[in-house]
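can u do me a favor
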């Protein structure tokens, strides 16, 4: 590779770090990649770090020592959180989303990359100190959001299935009562997906009664895995007592009135 200018190195380092959040890169990685001295690269990183702080684009963390390096921390400022959550709340409050039986249509929101990525950043901010070994969700609508959160942690995603598949090998299966539909359902998890003693972060798109999330907690007990946190994008206000405790949510769905064609949602972003 030809010798790169500082501008080119700055662009390259920034792209690598932001495309791989939470992944630690030793300076030697960039030294070999760009053919530059570590002292020169330290100056480059200092420039990037200052720019990110001034523009509130997240943080560049520098860890010293033999096992140190640099990584991108995808922290979001309060104004950016308020703006994106406010936009989602406005969309959710549209009465045309009400479905028969008092349910609400949310599939488009959880399939829009911009919304999913921003909600993932917020959830990451809730749990970034928990150091999970993997992120877990249950199929299907929660998968895009959980995958985005897993990416920010640089950890794998594990998906509990409603029906086991031959391609997953032997599985552990349990029955549970869904909090929203009040129906008995099945959840399966491949024995190859996780290991005893690991730490799990539970992420899902929605919580009403909490039956599905409770089932994930019980599944983790079967594998002797510690749940370090539980986060959802949307939580219903009622019932106020869920089947899981200490979960964190981004948005509260306060009321759905099918007869009056009325929806009320609010943000839970306080800090």
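np, heres the sequence
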């Amino acid at each position: 590779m030809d010798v790169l200018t500082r501008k080119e190195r700055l662009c390259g380092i920034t792209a690598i770090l932001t495309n791989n959040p939470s992944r630690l890169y030793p300076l030697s990685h960039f030294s070999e990649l760009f053919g530059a001295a570590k002292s020169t690269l330290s100056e480059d990183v200092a420039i990037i770090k200052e720019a990110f702080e001034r523009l509130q684009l997240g943080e560049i963390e520098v860890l010293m020592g033999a096992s140190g390096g640099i990584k991108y921390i995808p922290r979001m400022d309060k104004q950016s959180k308020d703006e994106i959550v406010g936009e989602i709340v406005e969309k959710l409050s549209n009465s045309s989303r009400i479905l028969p039986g008092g349910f609400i249509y949310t599939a488009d929101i959880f399939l829009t990359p911009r919304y999913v990525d921003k909600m993932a950043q917020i959830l990451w901010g809730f749990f970034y100190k928990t150091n999970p070994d993997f992120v877990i969700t249950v199929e299907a609508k929660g998968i895009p959001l959980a995958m985005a959160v897993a990416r920010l942690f640089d950890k794998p995603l594990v998906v509990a299935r409603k029906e086991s598949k031959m391609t997953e090998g032997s599985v552990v299966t349990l029955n549970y009562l869904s909090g929203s539909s009040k129906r008995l359902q099945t959840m399966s998890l491949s024995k190859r997906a996780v290991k005893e003693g690991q730490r799990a972060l539970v992420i899902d798109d929605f919580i009403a009664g909490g039956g599905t999330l409770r089932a994930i907690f019980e599944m983790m007990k079967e594998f002797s895995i510690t749940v370090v946190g539980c986060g959802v994008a949307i939580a219903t206000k009622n019932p106020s007592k869920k089947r899981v405790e200490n979960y964190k949510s981004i948005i509260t769905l306060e009321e759905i009135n099918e007869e009056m064609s009325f929806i009320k949602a609010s943000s839970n972003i306080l800090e």
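The mean pLDDT is 94. hope that helps!!
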